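User: For a benchmark we're assembling, each entry needs the component sequences followed by a predicted structure for the full assembly. Here are entry 17's components. Please fill in the structure.
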Amino acid sequence: MTLANHVFPFDLHTMTDKYRFIPFLKDKELYSNFNFSVFLDDYCNADCKFCVANIRCKTKNRKNVFGKNYNAYLKSLDKMFAFLRPLNPTISLTGGEPTLFPLFDEVVSLVNQYNFRIRAVTTNASQLLKNNQRILNCLIKNNWTYLNLSLPHWEQKRIEEIMRYKDTYPSSFADLLSQAHQAIKGTCVKPRLSCVLLKEGVGDLSACEKYVNFYNKLGYDNFIFRQLTYFNGKDTNQDIVRYNEQNVVTCEKIWKENEEQDKFTFFKRNIGYYYYVELYKYANNTIAFESADLATRKQEMQKYNYKKVFEVVYHPNGNLCSGWDGTQEILLNYQDL
Ligand code: SF4
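Assistant: Structure for entry 17:
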């Protein structure tokens, strides 16, 4: 495969729209395989140098609008779930660090009660074994589907340098991941290791291979390597923008190295509305490489005057939006329901 074969435009054109002009969408159309993200809040016990959640200064410290009124928050979520579930989205829980959200268990249970077809959560893994594996037991009990574990390296020291934990963190992520794998093995919960490509961390094919081999020995066989998403603009956190500019490693670079060294075997590509994924096999492992480009998506949407909603996000401020800024692209507020 030549390098040119890797590059595909983001596909806004063939996405089908089963749900057209549902009243709350006004003049917009909903992508039928849309994802519903519940953005719990942005508290995290780490401070990753590349953190996309913290790159927008103006939305940092997004406290949940319900504060400690947990019943009110769960009621609002119940209404949102009842409203959106008939449209059959996949669902994901995000933050911050979602497992530190005080109502994590209750939210997971509610997702199960509504029987969303695919459920995913992305975590930095630090809390998985605490309190007798409370988080893992909760996911298993509630028929969870995907557990995405974000770790930017396999060496403890490098993980600590990049993630800059603010308080206590596991003395050995390797031991933690090993025990976590034992706990979920044979259950409905499918784990996946997620690693951002960084010059400072995993930045070439050889490092990708080491990462996969290391975690494979602990039991994992599903991996995703992500290219940093370019993001800049008014009010952005310039430290993170600069770090990301200096540390970005493109998927193309890794694919080119792979063509020369023939380590991973390509078998599939997925072209999304703002992402491009290539899937590879390597021994018993499945490895995805993902590049995403929100800026290009925005330009394409404007160019073709698209009014499609590809994902919806329930923000901590009570707004349901079609994007990751809780003050923009508002579809409705929980009080409208
Ligand atoms: S663990 Fe995730 S949310 Fe927390 S700082 Fe790192 S990237 Fe951001």
